[in-house]
Design goal:
The complex is a heterodimer of chains A (113) and B (113).
Chain A lengths: L4 E3 L2 E4 L5 E6 L6 E7 L6 E7 L2 E5 L7 E4 L6 E5 L8 E8 L7 E2 L3 E5 L1
Parallel strand pairs in A: 2-11
Antiparallel strand pairs in A: 1-3, 3-8, 4-5, 4-9, 5-6, 7-8, 9-10, 9-11
Chain B lengths: L3 E2 L4 E5 L4 E7 L6 E7 L6 E7 L4 E4 L2 E6 L4 E6 L8 E9 L5 E4 L3 E6 L1
Parallel strand pairs in B: 2-11
Antiparallel strand pairs in B: 1-3, 3-8, 4-5, 4-9, 6-7, 7-8, 9-10, 9-11
The chains are: A mainly beta (113), B mainly beta (113).
Amino acid sequence: EPEVTQTPSHQVTQMGQEVILRCVPISNHLYFYWYRQILGQKVEFLVSFYNNEISEKSEIFDDQFSVERPDGSNFTLKIRSTKLEDSAMYFCASTGGRTYEQYFGPGTRLTVT
Amino acid sequence: DQQVKQNSPSLSVQEGRISILNCDYTNSMFDYFLWYKKYPAEGPTFLISISSIKDKNEDGRFTVFLNKSAKHLSLHIVPSQPGDSAVYFCAAPVTGGGNKLTFGTGTQLKVEL
């Protein structure tokens, strides 16, 4: 069964450093998302991406964040200058667009020290 | 922004009995709802969904009930199994833009032997 994959599973970085989180969505899906979950809190939306552009972004998704689909398979989230409060699980999701069901990857745990 | 609420952070049931997880919403524009299950260190896994034109949807041991007038939905699991122990999130797509999902805070279900 096709699945969303994410790498790395765990990333430790120092405050102020840039990180890139990678995702491979399900191959025939058209809509891509990033969510995050800070420990003990709910899963919250960051950004959605369709047709090679951002379709919606949350207040969290400020100028420090960017997304890219550099080729036909990868979908990346870049945080330019990480802060302590960026420490969270980051989930990538995708959907074909015919239904509302989004399929999530296993997540990347980002730890900013 | 608490458009989807899960007021019970935890629930404990015995194996073989029914588990009932509840969810309330405030946005009357929501017309579709989803339940996700999440194990530790994994991403949310889609479980079952319901459209607002229905009041019940069943899939094996899982049934979701929707009461639009009360803005309430519930997930019934019967019979409950130890492998059902996980965090359960209800979610609703916010239509328009990228159809982002807004999640509840989750309910930790523990099924005891």
